[in-house]
Structures are given as C-alpha cells and as structure tokens.
Amino acid sequence: MKMIAAVGRNYEIGIGNELPWRCPTDLKLFKQLTKNATVVMGRKTMESLKRPLPERHNLVLTRSRGYIPNGFYPAG
C-alpha cells in the first residue's frame, strides 16, 4: 500500500473542498502513481470531483452508504 498526501505549511490538505495550491507537476505525478490503482478518498473529496478518476478504482470513506454515485465504491 502506498500513501500520497500533499500538506501545506499550516498542515492543511484542503480548503473549501479544493486543494490550497495548483501545481501541475504534482498533479502529473499523482496521475502517474495512481493510474490502474485504487484511490481511497473521503466523501468531500468525492463530491469535489466532477466524475470518478479515470483508470482508477475509486473508493470512498463515508458513513452515508446510500450516497455513492456511479463509478465510486464505498470502502469497508
């Protein structure tokens, strides 16, 4: 299992359901490392996406099992 996380100077990982920065190099690396793999995300991250991440198995950590759009799967 691999874990990828980007953390800001104040230990933030997101602000207002968005990344607190834009770094094309980081996004390209994330895409390379997660292609054809499983990506585990929280419900708010899922909601911030327009669609499931392509070429990945999208697992969502949530207590609301009834609220999982097509292409996403509940974890656990």
TrEMBL record:
Top-level taxonomic group: Bacteria
Keywords recorded for this protein, A-Z: NADP, One-carbon metabolism, Oxidoreductase
Entry keyword annotation includes Protein transport: no
Record has Nucleotide-binding as a keyword: no
Pfam families: DHFR_1
Entry EC no(s): 1.5.1.3
PROSITE patterns xrefs: DHFR_2
Domain DHFR: 1-76
GO process terms (BP): dihydrofolate metabolic process; folic acid metabolic process; one-carbon metabolic process; tetrahydrofolate biosynthetic process
GO cellular component: cytosol
A GO molecular function held by the record: dihydrofolate reductase activity
Cited CDD domains: DHFR (cd00209)
Pathway in which the depicted protein is active: Cofactor biosynthesis; tetrahydrofolate biosynthesis; 5,6,7,8-tetrahydrofolate from 7,8-dihydrofolate: step 1/1
Family: Belongs to the dihydrofolate reductase family.
Function, as annotated: Key enzyme in folate metabolism. Catalyzes an essential reaction for de novo glycine and purine synthesis, and for DNA precursor synthesis.
Protein's name in the database: dihydrofolate reductase
